[in-house]
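Moderator note: this is an archived Q&A kept for reference. The question asked for a predicted structure of one protein chain; the sequence and the answer are reproduced below.
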Amino acid sequence: MSNQMMDAFTSALIPQALNLAGQFWWLILLLIIVSITRTAWFKGVFGEWIVNLILRKNFKEPEYSLFKDVMLPREDGTTQIDHILLSKYGIFVIETKNMKGWIFGNETSPYWTQQIFKNKFRFQNPLRQNYKHTKTLSDLIEVDPAVVHSIIVFVGDATFKTPMPNNVLTAFKLRRYISEYSHPVIDDTALEAIKVSLSRGKLDNSFTNKRKHIAHAKSLKKMTNTTPDERDTTNCPRCGGSLVMRTSKRGTNEGKQFLGCSNYPKCRFIRH
């Protein structure tokens, strides 16, 4: 085919293609939107939006103060918290999971399982994930960990197929769960100081900080996936056993979660 014929063919084809695209622009746009809604990013953002809506509707100023998408510094990098709700009744640290299907897990397992039909997917135990958040926050604002409450909220069509702790719940139960904390444990002066400490201590959600956080999270995930015994690098420094999530049964910290050695009672190490 000569160059002249090729030019003529191209000149005729391009207008037809543009005309066809113009007629079906709505279909192209729909396909783009559907593709975006299936991404993990969109599911995360949508889940956090649902939780944010529930919190703002039911727990309003001045009795409650809501901080969302909070990035805090750590010695080993950064950690990101979906929602922090401050009140005189306690400090609620909320981790959101937008998932569907069957959910299997327990407090001590390093990983939980999501099953959709015959397909199974493993994900990090969110109780462990949020323990890191609550510990970082407690250290930053210098408060008694007993007044900091960890909450895991599942948004979406998820069904728990194993017994879950009370603080692992669906979005429909979030309002009732927080409302059960009705006894003041933080006075007004201390609460104002906490607000100031959090506002000053949290990192800006700048592009640079978010990029660093994502890189840090990816490195941790890669390290976890290459750990053959699935201990998620949480090893007891005393005996070498794995650290597992436990719940305090008595004392001032009753009901609180902590990381303890799996070789208890022979080894009584606790990671603070």
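Archived answer notes: The first strand starts at residue 64 and ends at 74.
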